[in-house]
Amino acid sequence: MQIAFIGLGNMGGPMANNLARAGLRLSLYDTDRQKSKVVLSVAKAAGNAAVTVAGSLSEAASGSDIVMTSLPSPKVIEEVAHGERGILSSLSAGAVWIDLSTNNLESQRRILAAAREREISILDAPVTGGIEGAAAGTLLIMVGGEKDIFSRCKPVLEKIGDRVLHLGAHGAGYVAKISQVVLCYLNSVALSEALMLGVKGGVPAETMLSIIQDSTGASYVADRYGPAILDGSYDPGFALGLAHKDMALTLELANSLRTALPMCTQVEDIYRRAVEKYGFSQNHLMAVKLLEEQNGQFLRGSARND
Ligand code: NAD
């Protein structure tokens, strides 16, 4: 089986590493060629000689039985999908495209229409577990699409995740992913406000965080992101712009389902303003910096108010 892996960033890179270590035949493509080379060296170290770096998107996709993508946004996914040298034109009938990115339903609908004409099957298979889960091969993968295609692809997905769930028809994976990921941002903002209140009232930030971790406020976000707020690194594992993309997808989905989500509306606004102020590629917890600046108080314990 020949697999093309497109998009080898924070998530795609470690996922492709695990496929390479599992001995699969892979063709790699990323607009940043250096990213492909990193995976290639992991494959070589693992003794897998069936991993190659493609010179273009269409070279990677053509002849592949499965294409897997881990890309930043609906816009990029549509760019690689369509066009003469896009994924859909490069694949043969019977091939499957598994999108591991967090994407929206509207973009998927356009891709599905074009894919049907070419007899290409599509699965939405967004993931959760962060860069640690991607590296460890322990992602939770939420899949939407036809059951028989899912069953055919499940053994490949099990090389990168330890829970691979078929949730229903096309789009079910994206819906589950968006509904899950939104809590990451709501929790991050909530955590920063709780820390801010404690610190402004005179409780050291580290003490406040450990109290939260031992209370009803305990969460993955407090354990994983709390220290990254307090050391001022704001967590380099995920881009601020991608965090805002997730919040924008949340509001888009809520609108299409005529569902009111007042907290999500406020949190989307915070992430949008943070991207405007600090830039798309900054670390995602820079959203907290807006609150820090608003209050004239940094949360990082060792260097407050600098
Ligand atoms: P990233 O920005 O680190 O990686 C994206 C990669 O795509 C980059 O290497 C980039 O060079 C490449 N790329 C961009 N345009 C391209 C194109 N036209 N052709 C080929 N390659 C192209 O992003 P990431 O953090 O790895 O996230 C990827 C997807 O996974 C996103 O949809 C994100 O929302 C989702 N996600 C990320 C995390 C996380 O913790 N980082 C967790 C779950 C889901």
Keywords summarizing the entry:
single chain; 306 residues; alpha/beta; Rossmann fold; N-(1-d-carboxylethyl)-l-norvaline Dehydrogenase, domain 2; 2 domains; 6-stranded parallel β-sheet; 3-stranded mixed β-sheet; 9 strands; disordered C terminus; binds nicotinamide-adenine-dinucleotide
Molecular structure report:
The protein is of the alpha/beta class. The chain folds into two domains: 2-170, NAD(P)-binding Rossmann-like Domain (Rossmann fold, 3-Layer(aba) Sandwich); 176-304, N-(1-d-carboxylethyl)-l-norvaline Dehydrogenase, domain 2 (Orthogonal Bundle). The protein is 53% helix and 13% strand. The chain contains 14 helices and nine strands. The chain has helices at residues 12-21, 33-45, 57-61, 74-81, 87-90, 105-117, 130-136, 147-157, 172-200, 205-213, 220-230, 240-256, 262-278, 287-295; strands at 2-6, 25-29, 51-53, 66-69, 96-99, 121-124, 127-128, 139-144, 161-168. The strands form two sheets. The chain has a six-stranded parallel β-sheet, with helices on both faces. Strands 7-8-9 form a three-stranded mixed β-sheet. Helix 8 (147-157) links the parallel strand 8 and strand 9. The longest helix is centred in the middle third of the chain and has 29 residues, at 172-200. The relative contact order is 0.10. The model is unreliable at 302-306 (pLDDT under 50). The structure holds nicotinamide-adenine-dinucleotide (NAD). Nicotinamide-adenine-dinucleotide (NAD) binds at residues 6-12, 29-32, 35, 57, 70-72, 76, 79-80, 101-102, 127-128, 130-131, 237-239, 242.
